[in-house]
Amino acid sequence: MKSKLIKGLSIFLGGILMFTACEDEDTSPNLGDAVGTWKLVGLDGTYDRKIINKTGVANTAEEYPLVANWKDAAAFGTALQQAGVAITPEYVVAATARKLTTFKPGDNAPGFPRDASFNKTTLAAAGIQMEVDLLDSKSATDKGTYTVKGTYPSLRLDPDKCKTYLMLPPPQINDTGDWFANYETGKFELSPVVDIDQVLPPFADGSFKVNREVDPATFYLEFLDRDSHDSKFSEVKPGKTWDTKMEEDKRVITGIDGIPTNEYGGWDPDAKTDPANEAYIMQTALAPWSGFLTFYALNVLAELKDRLADVKNPLTDLNQDEKVDATDLFMYMLANIQAGNDAKTSFGIPYSALVDLGDGTDPSKFKFKNDGGADWVLTAWTAGGKMKYQVKGLCMPVNETILFKSSWEEEEEHDHDHD
Length: 419
Prior knowledge:
The protein is of the alpha+beta class. It has helices spanning about 1-25, 75-80, 90-95, 120-125, 245-250, 295-310, 325-340, 350-355; strands at about 35-50, 65-70, 100-105, 115-120, 130-135, 145-150, 155-160, 165, 170-180, 185-190, 205-210, 220-230, 250-255, 280, 355, 365-370, 390, 395-410. Mean pLDDT is about 90; it is low at about 5-10, about 15-20 and about 415-419.
């Protein structure tokens, strides 16, 4: 009787233990709540590009001047040549070119840092969509694998125009590799496979958050892309150096072929408009011509340069203000007209066309003639006018980093059991 009781009790206790073991079995993913299939619903990117100068790099230089050319220069030069003026179209093109600004190594590339922000609506409008599948690992200390598919935002270079642009429709992404999440430090690691082309960069110090208290669950990932930055590349994978092959594969070239414009159609780096390739040149020093570089202003500036360079009869400080400038030139031109000479500039404009004497009775009202009220046209070129300029594309090598902040929602059909 005793043996049967002990035997029955053993079977009963064994059943309890087995039942308890089934109840306590941990079926959660080894790599925690981040395991799942996630769809991109928000993306913020800050693109930072610093200009460099480096031996052996394409387009490298000690400085990078941004030059604008008068769009009608060649046509005007041809017209002058046909009229018998001893001038060539090439001379007019070179003489009317204007350096707008100069960029130097260490400067921010023009237009950078640049922010891009997308929500669900604007992601769809731009054709950007990504789905990442974070697959579980064999143990809590092993890395999992991932795949990313879809389309992604990308800044590209048109090398013929030296123009940087957002590629639309966006290119395809089909990435794979390893991942790991540390819930104690909040750090996320991504390691793309190395034997195929990958879009996402490797990083070991991304920041992540998962929220499974909401439906659908959300996943946030922030990381710094620095694999196109020669001095920061070693941070991607400690110990690796930026070698010649990496230079060729990863070096970013930024291009600029336009500047934002103000309400008057003049280039203005502080304006909030999209860059324009064609516009007016405007400066405060051009106030006598309504602030524009006009044809008359161009002639005055060219004549000032010529008179200053005249070794036999250089322009002097006629108003005795201890500088030789356009005011002295105006006085020189006025004296020339009054002497009956009415000399011409190198572009064939007589001095009398460049000065406004009013009714000729009040010298205090004498001034440069303002031709800033209309555009210059070849068929009436002596009437002057505002000149349209075009930016010559400029390519510059840069070091680039991109800070990405991405928001994701879990795809319901791929939900994992986290009970």
